[in-house]
Design goal:
The complex is a heterodimer of chains A (307) and B (455). With 307 residues, chain A is an alpha/beta fold. Helices cover 51% and strands 14% of the residues of chain A. Chain B contains 21 helices and 8 strands. Chain B starts with a helix and ends in a 14-residue tail after the last helix. The complex binds guanosine-5'-triphosphate (2 copies) and magnesium ion (MG) (2 copies).
Chain lengths: 307, 455
């Protein structure tokens, strides 16, 4: 994954989305004085990117402090906002580190229904496999129709063995067995898929807690990472999701998927300020290679329609 | 869905109600709060703007500000605008066409199309006695066709046999042909997820539409979608000519703004809502009931319907008699808990009760949640039959046994017993109050010690 391909892909994904917000800002600030009306319009534009009311108000507040009443160009405003957003996001742009001494490094992947968990696992499998690691996958979604088959196809695509049980079997039991197998094989990474579940369903969340607990029986430190997969089309509900999953399985990092869509995933800015959880990667397509590291500066600039 | 919006609006309304005269500035201030409430509920900005402009124009009408109760009038203006935005009457799937009636499902990746296809198939087949065939046109996602096939088996709805390598448009044509030959009433087309900005796949969708000309084209969208809901709905509407919207994951705690946004920009009715992963978890959408729910007026109609579906009439009457005689015991409490769960759990019930919005906050503060119901059921089921009918028997050592048996603590057991007492008291009060009193006072009238009782 070199820098140009990362930027290229991200831009291909983001320019479609940011052309809207970018275009909007261009309209507002073509040689214009930054007055209250302009500030309001700018704030509104950030709101349409799902930044949320508070984050949007704070960002334009900063801008107001330094540039109020001045004649500002469109480019300047975008750059200033991008810098502020990048400042917020750069502390959380942290790749997922695999500790090969753990054998296996266990990664539990969780999230609401349809957010992109299984696909993200396929993408990580490809990434680590390419780095020469021995990767195993566990089909922990024993609930959804054809979830196991779906992961098996990802296993074939990436050349990683998939541990699966019978449909409608016990997910925690399967996770336990998978960790046993991965340990005896001496695998480097074990990626565990889980069934999608809404964070407000106590019984389903308890099921997740159980998977977590059972893994610890075999390895006190497992899972070594717990990834919450968030869909970039999500609105302010992302706050509830992060909070609930964090409380149940101590989420260690986020992956934002479908960033190639027209949604900007702007809620990430507020999530970053509130939870400070690392963003390990972003999904920019449905293919195995469509996983990219999260880069705060590039993301922020693309979000503002720059470059 | 809609909880936070309900909370915010009720605060705004409370403030308005307290006022005698209202100035234009007062109305502006209230509408600013309404604006914030809508935006925080993920209603798209453009939709919010139109909404506020309309509400403002209506509120400024002279009869409003000069009326005796201007606060009430402004509330009514906002109510009416909200109901209008959600659409009026519930609209069903339109089946008025020459069979096989085509229904195509489209939407973003992972929004719930395949699951919804099977839900609709099951519903049409069992409720409306239609002969249904489903076809997966998803050649994109791994195991997508397998997924629909399995769901078809679960729902006992026929699926079109898969021919590997065939493209979406050809599959659609083959499905229509097979449905015609097989004498099917309905053919459901499940399509691959696609981004609204993916020109190629959007083009393919419009080709499919041209090829089989479905009678209904439904956009399947996640209730938790943010501001982009308007763009997505607009793009899909332009390209596929939507006839309706299905909102999924309404069982989540999303704020539901997407529902308002998408309906507003497309003018298409929300025809169905998905309220769970299981195939029977699909419901009709009733705009006026939802508007009432948002406005904190409760959805009594749905509550009664739900109750009628889940409550065993005889059991309920037997219970009522026991209550009147003051014989309510832990066994009964356990049954109540079960019933409550069947009816959508505590929060499901609370959503539908008038004036329960505030109580829900209190409950959240007191940490009363669904998990507690499960825990309480576990505690009661760890008791002996004797203990259940005579809770007084339960002393220290028995409490320890029950706690161990249910994986809880003695404090939890104590808490439950205390709640049982409170509940028995409430039951007595209820039987005195009679049916009428309850209707008038609502739940609040029953609940003095709310903070430590979930009922
Ligand atoms: N465009 C795009 N699509 C994605 C991305 N990630 C996942 N998808 C698609 O989103 C859909 C759902 O992905 P899954 O990986 O099955 O999601 P999941 O979270 O495992 O779903 P459940 O197991 O049902 O909860 C599929 O159609 C994927 O191809 C992404 O980064 N971009
Ligand atoms: N809680 C809940 N989950 C739902 C609902 N509808 C669908 N799901 C879940 O959402 C996930 C995705 O559903 P699918 O039907 O596979 O979505 P799709 O739109 O066909 O996905 P793609 O074909 O990949 O675009 C699955 O885990 C479903 O079980 C709903 O109303 N409530
Ligand atoms: Mg999955
Ligand atoms: Mg599908």
């Amino acid at each position: 994954m070199n820098a140009t391909s990362w930027l290229g892909r991200l831009k291909a994904g983001l320019t479609k989305t940011s052309s809207q917000i970018g275009g909007g800002i261009a309209d507002i600030f073509r040689k214009r004085r930054l007055d209250d009306a302009a500030i309001q319009e700018l704030e509104d534009l950030l709101i349409t990117s799902d930044l949320g009311l508070d984050a949007a108000a704070r960002l334009v507040g900063n801008l107001k402090k330094t540039r109020f009443g001045k004649e500002v160009s469109d480019q300047e405003v975008r750059a200033a906002l991008a810098t502020d957003i990048a400042d917020i996001l750069s502390p959380i742009a942290i790749p997922l580190e695999i500790d090969v001494a753990r054998k296996p490094h266990v990664v539990l992947v969780v999230g609401v229904n349809g957010s992109g968990k299984t696909t993200t696992i396929g993408k990580f499998a490809r990434l680590y496999k390419a780095q020469g690691l021995d990767v195993m996958l566990a089909a922990g979604d024993t609930f959804r129709a054809a979830a196991v088959e779906q992961l098996k196809i990802w296993g074939e695509r990436t050349g990683c063995p998939v541990i699966s049980g019978k449909a409608e079997g016990d997910a925690a039991g399967l996770a336990y067995e998978a960790l046993q197998q991965a340990t005896s094989r001496g695998a480097d990474v074990l990626l565990i898929d889980t069934a999608g579940r809404l964070h407000n369903k106590a019984d389903l969340m308890a099921g997740l807690e159980k998977i977590n607990r059972v893994l610890k029986k075999l390895d006190e430190s497992a899972p070594h990472d717990c990834l919450l997969v968030l869909d970039a089309t999500i609105g302010q509900n992302a706050h509830n999701q992060v909070e609930a999953f964090r409380d149940i399985v101590s989420v260690s990092g986020l992956v934002l998927t479908k960033v190639d869509g027209s949604s900007k995933g702007g809620v990430l800015v507020a999530l970053s300020e509130r939870f400070g959880l690392p963003v390990h990667a972003i999904g920019v397509g449905e293919g195995a290679e469509d996983l990219q590291p999260f880069e705060a500066g590039a993301y922020a600039r693309s979000l503002m329609g720059l470059d | 869905m809609f909880d936070s919006l309900t909370g915010r609006l009720s605060d705004v309304f409370d403030r308005l109600r307290k006022r005698g005269a209202l100035s234009e500035a007062d109305v502006d201030a209230a509408l600013r709060d309404v604006r914030v409430a809508l935006l925080e509920a993920d209603v798209a900005l453009s939709v919010v703007r139109d909404f506020i402009a309309k509400a403002k124009a209506d509120a400024m009408g002279e009869n409003v500000l000069r009326s005796v109760t201007p606060g009430q009038m402004v509330i009514k203006v906002v109510n009416d605008a909200l109901i209008e935005m959600l659409g009026g009457e519930a609209e069903e799937l339109n089946m008025m066409a020459v069979p096989p009636v085509g229904i195509m499902l489209v939407g973003l990746q992972g929004s719930g199309k395949t699951t919804t296809a099977a839900k609709i198939g099951l519903r049409l087949q069992t409720r409306d006695r239609k002969k249904v065939m489903m076809a997966s046109l998803d050649t994109q996602r791994p195991a997508a066709q397998e997924q629909l096939k399995i769901l078809g088996e679960q729902a006992e709805v026929a699926t079109l046999p898969v021919i590997p390598g065939q493209g979406p448009v050809d599959i659609a044509k083959r499905a229509l042909e097979a449905a015609r030959l097989g004498g099917y009433d309905v053919v459901l087309y499940d399509t691959a997820g696609r981004l609204s900005i993916d020109e190629a796949l959007m083009g393919e969708m419009s080709q499919i539409r041209t090829a089989v000309d479905p009678h209904e084209t439904l956009l399947v969208a996640d209730a938790m979608t943010g501001q982009d809901a308007v763009n997505v709905a607009e793009r899909f509407h332009e390209t596929a000519g939507l006839t309706g919207i299905v909102l999924t994951r309404v069982d989540g705690d999303g704020r539901g703004g997407a529902a308002l946004s998408m309906r507003a920009v497309t003018g298409c009715p929300i025809k169905l809502i998905g309220v769970g992963e299981k195939l029977d978890e699909l419901e009709e959408f009733h705009p006026e009931r939802i508007a009432n729910r948002i406005l904190g007026m409760g959805d009594v109609v749905s509550l009664v319907e739900k109750a009628a579906e889940t409550i065993d009439q005889e059991e309920a009457e037997a219970l009522a008699k026991k209550i009147q005689k003051g014989q309510f015991d832990l066994e009964d409490m356990s049954k109540q808990l079960q019933q409550m769960r069947k009816m959508g759990g505590l929060s499901g019930l609370m959503d539908m009760l008038p004036g329960a919005g505030k109580m829900k906050d209190q409950m959240a503060k007191a940490n009363i949640d669904e998990r507690m119901i499960g825990q309480q059921e576990a505690i009661i089921s760890s008791m002996t039959k004797k203990e259940r009918s005579r809770p007084k028997l339960i002393h220290a050592s028995r409490k320890r046994r029950i706690a161990a048996g249910s994986g809880t603590t003695v404090q939890d057991v104590n808490k439950l017993l205390k709640q049982f007492q409170t509940m028995s008291k409430v039951m007595k009060r209820m039987s005195k109050m009679g049916k009428k009193g309850m209707m008038r006072q609502g739940l609040q009238g029953l609940m003095p010690g709310m903070s430590n009782s979930p009922f």
